[in-house]
Amino acid sequence: MVSRVSFDLVERRWADVSWLDHLPGHPSRVGLRDLFVHAHEIKALTLTPAPFLSAMYRLLYAMTSRITGLDVLGENENEDDWLDRRSELAGQPLDPAVVDRYFDEMSGRLDLFHPERPFLQDPRLADPEVCPKSAGVNKLVLGRPAGNNSVWFGHHWDAVPAPVPTVEAFAALLVWLYYGPSGRCATRKHGSVSAADVSAGPLRSSLSYHPEGATLLETLMAGLTPPPRKLRPGVDLCPWELDELPDPLAPPPEPDPYPGLRSRLTGGWQHALLLVPDETGENVTDAFVTWGRRIKQPSTNDAYLIHQISQQGNPYARPADASRDLWRDLDGLLQLKTTSTAQPRRPEAFDTVDELGSGTFKVRALGFEQDGKTKDVQFVSSATPPLLFRIQEKDHRRARRIGDLRMFGELYGRRLEYAAKRAWALVNSEDKVSDCAWADHAAAAYWPLAEDIFWGRMRREDYTDSWKPFLRAAASAFDEVTQGRIRSTRDARAIEQARIELYGGRRRTAAKPKRSS
User: Fold this and answer.
1) InterPro entries under this entry (predicted)?
2) Counted domains in the chain
């Protein structure tokens, strides 16, 4: 592809940021160079949608580790030494000369429309012998109808596709790489292989958790994990740092497909894309979307996911659920006591966050509620107050009380769900208790109340009779859903019979032993 336009992410102002309160008058958008040089003055990235920010954090972690030299252990350095070095670097601005050196070495590699190495894209797709047909810009952009799909949220059709601003196209590019669907895709030929199917992206349907500090610099430093002891410099590379484009037919490297954090962050992609700009470079008018790897890439064991165990004994990432409040995930984030058989494991990135300052980092949860194949549901974004992530080690008694508080919230949520379903079944003379609108409405009424109860109690450190407010909230939600549906004495009796489930259900009497003859 011959391209004479440019959109260099290093120099162009494209990334939305908020600055510290005492620094007014700064630009609302910055390029990557200014983002790193001023990271100690920037409060946060404000990129949307949520999966774009999640993906961008991973790219920035990878760049941060290389710029700071934290991608490998120093000579005669152990993990504690690395943590000390990270703490020191987090407390001072990044050296502009070091930032310049990295981006000068990567000159042209972070340009979205570079003719030979467009950032995170495969220029080979422009060859009709490789990819005979583009997917179209409607296929690229989230929320636009493409092909024969119905028009719901915007009047877009393939015959007259509307160009998309380049920054929005870049966001879509990252979401495809990390959260892209599996199944049919545009035909691509490489060597003797021609195929039109692809595996799902590495973060598909997942919710990722990121430590968030007072500045962007703290946030990026907190997101780094200690490198493997035997990792050598120049081995753990990102795609834009490689000398050659990857072979899409090659098997994953052996023995370790991801030698360090940086390849784990950027090495699990399955899709390949290519953006086609207009003559100004300010908009994208077309796109190629197809498979990038024929072989399913191994799990990256992503350091920002809560991993848990399925009933079959297989590990998997806790999925994104737009209806689930973030406080319910503290069992995994803080390693709290839980009755779940899933055995949630804290994201690796949070194992050392407290080394940068106990109780000063929040959790930013970002994800995309999806099924495992093609269905997209809703973006997910939420945040916690500052937390002490190693509370089990430093204050076990308090951790136990927080765990109990969380479990009571979950307990009465489950009881309410069953009570609402049973009330519906009894009122409507249904034989089986099953999903129903009453249960959905009860959940919508209960969980916001439960969230306020949880954070309020935790903030006041009030753990006395911690079950009582959740029971009151469940009873209130049950009444809100059921009381307006009473049309007869029979209905009232059925609803009161179901109400018992809020208290654990009717106790079963033990069977009397049979008399021996």
Assistant:
1) CRISPR-assoc_prot_Cse1 (IPR013381)
2) 1
Distance CA 53, CA 395 (A): 33
- Tokens representing 426 are 């009894």
Query: Within a domain: residue 490?
Result: yes
Secondary structure class of 191 (helix, strand, coil): coil
**Residue 433 included in any domain:** yes
Rounded to two decimals, the pTM is 0.92
d(CA 345, CA 336): 10
CATH classification of the domain holding 493: 1.10.132
* Residue given tokens 């790897």 in the structure block: 293
User: How many whole angstroms separate alpha carbon 213 and alpha carbon 364?
Assistant: 10
Residue 154: per-residue pLDDT: 56
Q: Are strands 307-309 and 183-190 parallel, antiparallel or unpaired?
A: unpaired
CA end-to-end span of the chain: 94
> Which tens digits make up the pLDDT trace of 407-430?
999 999 999 999 999 999 999 988
Tens of pLDDT along 304-322? 999 999 888 888 999 999 9
- Could you tell me which residues are beta bridge partners of residue 275? 287
Task: Compute the residue count for the chain.
Answer: 517
Q: Is the pLDDT of residue 149 over 70?
A: no
- Of 324, 5, 55, the closest CA to residue 172 belongs to 55
Q: 109 in a domain, yes or no?
A: no
The CA radius of gyration of the chain, in Å to the nearest whole number, is 26
**Domain residue limits at 493:** 395-507
